[in-house]
Specification:
Blueprint (H helix, E strand, L loop, with lengths): L46 E2 L16 E5 L2 E6 L4 E5 L2 H10 L6 H11 L1 E6 L5 H15 L4 E7 L5 H6 L7 E5 L10 H18 L2 E7 L13 E4 L4 H18 L7 H10 L3 H13 L5 H12 L1 H11 L2 H12 L5 H17 L12 H7 L2 E3 L5 E3 L2 H14 L1 H6 L1 H9 L7 H20 L3 H11 L4 H15 L5 H11 L5 H14 L4 H11 L5 H17 L1 H12 L4 H17 L1 H6 L3 H6 L1 H10 L1 H17 L4 H17 L2 H15 L5 H15 L37
Parallel strand pairs: 5-8, 5-9, 6-7, 7-8
Antiparallel strand pairs: 1-9, 2-3, 3-4, 4-6, 10-11
Helix pairs in contact: 8-9, 10-14, 11-12, 11-14, 16-17, 16-18, 17-19, 19-21, 21-22, 21-23, 23-24, 23-25, 24-25, 25-28, 28-29, 28-30, 29-31, 30-32, 31-32
């Protein structure tokens, strides 16, 4: 989901402003990517069922960008939060050589062919990603038109929105490693809309394979037909995997061939999948493997945590901060990461920290010493998760105060990247905000509240939205959720319009993690006196609908049945946006019973008058024509319109009659004509309202839409330009 886009020259948008997703062409990347080893891609699986091409940038739309990196094509869809990368042939070929197929693998392929959507679930190092790649290459062998493509997530994403997007490449096997992580895909849309998703995949000749750790899916049920569980490796399976890998290196790289005696030593010593994975991570880093090095490697593997701790302690100060920034600023490309590194080093040097100037070390030297590698999108990641975990541990235990002391550097980086017209600016803003949220997970303090207040009070809504990215990241630590609930509870009742707006904006991203708190805040702010705040509420509910349409429908149905006028108005605004943008809603409304269910929302549109009245009546017109004279639906429409015309002021009643006579009665559709003639007669026989114009109770007063922002007594106001 994209940031809230700042309306041009208007800090507080009126009701007619349209939102821009900020989908612009990102800067070209022309630095070739290096080959890398990927966790689990070298392993086989043990399955138990739970009963490129050059692209002309001149022909690319503003909503996406194709970038050629080496022999890969990188498709960035910033408004979707998804990046698509053609999988390297070297990775596929290696998987083909070393993967160990179980006796059930043929059945697994059959399931993928039948279902099109498969979610592979298992513990860490269970071979989930390797299994996904192996399935993909088997599918591509059977259908030469299929391309294997990896999905990476720069933001919360909807799989259905991605597949519906006209820029989404077809004839593809999409592999999403750790697809339900944060940021990542929503589980709810697969729970509720899996059949619709599969129908889209069939029409496009696409397949989707998602991997997920077992812990990610706790309390989240996935339809069994799409779920495959991997059991832990047996000792014989691990030995097969080891032997295949050793043979692979012997054939492909003689400098890494290992004598038979040492092969047997390795096979005897390694008993876990993680140990096997670490062995080949270490081998892949070394240009040559000698017999003398095997003992040292096995020693490191047998003491994983100690090895990671010793590694970190061996780093110099520059290397340590570079490693910590790699951990904190995920998905940030190497050039932007280097910019952050330079600013952090400068800030530390100003505080008399004994750290060398950035030019004293090359990027290559820092990457080598920190065990980091380039990803397909030129961001950096650790070669082994144990090093990343050790870095986060060091941040929490030894470097937290240092990062708090230079928090202003992170804040300034967010503030200086307010543009939504440049994807690199957007990437920097979001990555740094997420880094701040990650630091806040370790220890919440007023320093973070102060930074968030500065962002929230910024005139650009892109900066306000950065708070949502930071808080969402902090909320992934359960111990911080009370702190978040507290600050949002203060913001939502603040006299400062910016803080109320920001608390609504945060809910868009907070909903998957803290749904109860997010919905309560949206419910209260749906009746806010400021249209500016209510529009943020409406946007958040529409954003939630991307991944959970049913939840959004339930929200606005509850709102439309309240007595709160502004809340009703907000519900109508959300419904109109969903009608304009949600294909899933359009499909659901082909069902007459679903139409009847949403009749209160249509009624509310008509009662609100103006453009909403026209939208509501046009929708009813379409339903009548396509209803095949369903008497239950027609009766519901008739009763709703009669009740409206009995209760609303004369102006709206006359507008309803005029609209029906102008468009329905004049229609060439016989059923609509008959229905409308009878309906107009019934309406005209209703008692006339004694009030000739709209009475006061039908107005929605927005006293502060053009107010000067007041300083809130609980939160310091910062106006940072």
């Amino acid at each position: 989901m994209a940031d809230f886009y700042p309306p041009e020259n208007n800090q507080y948008p009126d009701e007619d402003d349209e939102r821009d997703d900020g989908n612009e062409i990102v800067d070209n990347i022309d630095v070739p990517i290096e080959d890398q080893e990927i966790d689990e891609s070298e392993m086989g699986e043990n399955v138990t069922e739970n009963s490129g091409t050059n692209v002309d940038l001149n022909n690319v739309s503003d909503s996406e960008v194709h970038i050629e990196i080496g022999n890969k094509i990188f498709l960035d869809l910033p408004g979707q939060g998804i990046r698509v990368i053609d999988l390297a042939s070297s990775e596929i070929n290696k998987n083909k050589s070393v993967y160990v197929e179980s006796s059930r693998f043929a059945d697994l392929i059959t399931r993928v062919l039948n279902e099109r959507l498969i979610i592979i679930v298992g513990d860490a190092h269970a071979g989930k990603y390797a299994t996904a790649i192996h399935i993909s290459q088997k599918l591509s062998l059977e259908n030469s038109d299929l391309k294997i493509r990896s999905l990476r997530f720069s933001d919360d994403a909807s799989l259905i929105d991605f597949v519906e997007n006209e820029e989404c490449p077809n004839n593809s096997v999409f592999v999403a490693q750790d697809g339900f992580s944060v940021p990542g895909l929503g589980i709810a849309e697969i729970q509720r809309h899996s059949h619709y998703l599969v129908s889209l995949l069939v029409n496009r000749n696409d397949y989707v394979i998602i991997t997920a750790d077992t812990g990610t899916l706790v309390d989240n049920e996935i339809p069994e037909q799409y779920k495959i569980e991997l059991s832990p490796f047996s000792t014989p399976d691990l030995q097969k995997i080891l032997k295949k890998h050793l043979s692979y290196y012997e054939l492909s790289d003689t400098s890494k061939s290992i004598v038979e005696e040492k092969k047997q030593q390795i096979i005897s010593a390694l008993r876990t999948a993680h140990a096997v994975d670490r062995l080949f991570q270490i081998i892949s880093r070394r240009p040559i493997i000698t017999a003398q090095e095997i003992d040292d490697i096995l020693s490191k593997i047998s003491n994983t945590v100690l090895d990671a701790k010793v590694w970190f302690q061996s780093l110099g100060v520059n290397q340590r901060y570079y490693a910590m920034l790699v951990a904190l600023c995920r998905e940030l490309d190497r050039n932007q990461l280097w910019l952050v590194y330079e600013k952090i080093v400068a800030a530390l040097r100003s505080k008399k920290v004994n750290i060398d100037a950035p030019l004293n070390f090359s990027e290559e030297e820092l990457r080598s010493s920190t065990y980091t590698v380039l990803t397909e999108i030129e961001s950096l990641e650790f070669q082994d998760i144990v090093y990343r975990d050790q870095v986060f541990l060091q941040i929490r235990e030894a470097y937290l105060q240092q990062f708090k002391s230079i928090l202003h550097v992170f804040s300034d980086l967010v503030l200086s990247n307010s543009s939504n017209q440049n994807n690199r600016s957007r990437d920097m803003r979001i990555a740094v905000a997420v880094a701040v949220g990650e630091i806040a997970k370790a220890s919440w303090s007023e320093a973070f509240t102060d930074a968030f207040n500065i962002w929230a009070n910024h005139p650009e809504t892109t900066i306000k939205s950065a708070v949502a990215h930071a808080i969402r990241q902090t909320a992934t630590a359960k111990i911080r959720q009370k702190d978040i609930a507290y600050i949002l509870s203060r913001w939502k009742i603040s006299s400062n319009i910016n803080l109320r707006w920001t608390s609504a904006a945060v809910c868009e991203r907070l909903y998957p993690i803290m749904p109860y708190e997010a919905l309560n805040i949206l419910n209260e702010l749906s009746n806010d006196k400021s249209n500016f705040v209510r529009r943020a509420v409406a946007h958040a509910v529409v954003a939630i609908a991307r991944r959970d349409l049913e939840e959004s429908i339930q929200i606005i149905l509850a709102w439309v049945n309240t007595e709160r006028k502004r809340t009703k108005r907000t519900a109508g605004d959300v419904f109109v946006k969903l009608l304009e943008n949600s294909k899933r809603l359009s499909l659901a409304l082909e069902n007459d019973s679903y139409r009847t269910r949403l009749m209160p929302l249509v009624t509310e549109l008509i009662v609100q008058g103006d453009e909403h009245l026209t939208t509501g009546l046009s929708l009813l017109q379409e339903w009548i024509i396509s209803s095949n004279e369903n008497q239950e639906l027609l009766s519901s429409i008739e009763n709703s319109l009669l009740n409206i015309c009995m209760d609303v002021p004369v102006d709206i009643r006359e507008s309803v009659i005029d609209e029906i006579q102008e468009k329905w009665v004049q229609s060439e559709d016989e059923s609509l004509y008959r229905f409308s003639v009878v309906l107009v007669d019934l309406i005209q026989k209703l008692p006339q309202s004694e009030t000739p114009q709209i009475p006061t109770q039908y107005f929605i007063f927005d006293d502060d839409d053009n107010e000067d922002i007041e300083e809130d007594e609980d939160f310091e106001f910062h106006n940072t330009n």
